[in-house]
Amino acid sequence: xxxFLENTSRFRRSMQFLAALTMLxxxxxxxxxxxxxxxxxxxxxxxxxxxxxxxxxxxxxxxxPDPFNGEYSGxxxxxxxxxxxxxxxxxxxxxxxxxxxxxGIILVDAPPSIGVNQADPASSVSMLEIIHGIxxxxxxxxxxxxxxxxxxxxxxxxxxxxxxxPKVDIIAHRETREQLARGTGELEGLLPGSGANPPxxxxxxxxxxxxxxxxxxxxxxxxxGPIHExxxxxxxxxxxxxxxxxxxxxxxxxxxxxxxxxxxxPSFIDAHDKVLEVDFDVFIGGHFNxxxxxxxxxxxxxxxxxxxxxxxxxxxxxxxxxIFGLKPRNxxxxxxxxxxxxxxxxxxxxxxxxxxxxxxPWLERLGNADISTLTHCWEMAEAIRIDPxx
Length: 390
Description:
Elements: H1 2-28, E1 78-83, E2 86-90, E3 95-101, E4 104-108, H2 127-132, E5 142-146, H3 152-155, H4 158-164, E6 169-173, H5 174-181, E7 204-206, E8 209-214, E9 217-222, E10 234-237, E11 242-244, H6 257-261, H7 265-276, E12 282-284, H8 294-315, H9 322-326, H10 331-351, H11 362-365, H12 369-386
Parallel strand pairs: 4-5, 5-6, 6-7, 11-12
Antiparallel strand pairs: 1-2, 2-3, 3-4, 8-9, 9-10, 10-11
């Protein structure tokens, strides 16, 4: 417990420092875009015209329920039954899912931050305590635990579950097991609430598809390519029509920076169509503060396609090569400025309702568009430029 609280305290101090640093940066230059360091003539830089960082949220990104209005069931975390004893749990940043049957519980992911009370660390609880706080789950064993993928921010608390239930079946894609097996465990404790042990290795793996059954509960797992990283899987509860796919679509928000750190951009783009092929009513994306719908996925797809088309447009603009004529002896430096110019033009096009192909006012629709669109454009343009699978 002391290690848990020390990690939590360290995280709070880090967050306070980052918040102070962010405010300092915003005060100096409240711009979402990079500059060309004054090397380009005035009026020729795509990065001169920028969208100010406001950190304001459009209504579409507001939390549902809202913890700031005391609407979370657990105060600093929230548990909600979606349908027929399928529950989701969130701390407003991460999300997990579990299904309850008389025979036990199926848990999908174990984010280490869920249950950490940053305002009062002493009142923090574990994911296990949160699950067993639900009357339907009280006293029931966790018999099966699914890893959506390898990232520690989503499965960093899995060792707590394994310690409590040594016979739990841990299920993942074979790529996920292979990646976890390469880990050294040397960097544990960097996430809030994470234990001293690395996530235990899965004891059951699959290739393309696997169906999990526990009493009346059914979960279908499928692998459709490296849409975020190799091994990231679709998790579908057909009876409840709930689809869970982590780190690809963020209902009400643009993706996390650099297209959510996707390792295969064409596959990341295609994932939006693959999600829409599934017969779901509720979507769980793994992050932020509300559940999603088909409309949210369709909106996320439109945003990504706008970024793609605008990146193509920027790459086709020969005027952006001007920097090479000004600094011919430093090709690498000039090239980095060129790439920033491409990203800035793409972002300007994407965030201008009159210029972007879908005609959508993204600043009014998706949270963090004022900050992250530039990184998405940079990542997209580079992938288009060098990835032969486009």
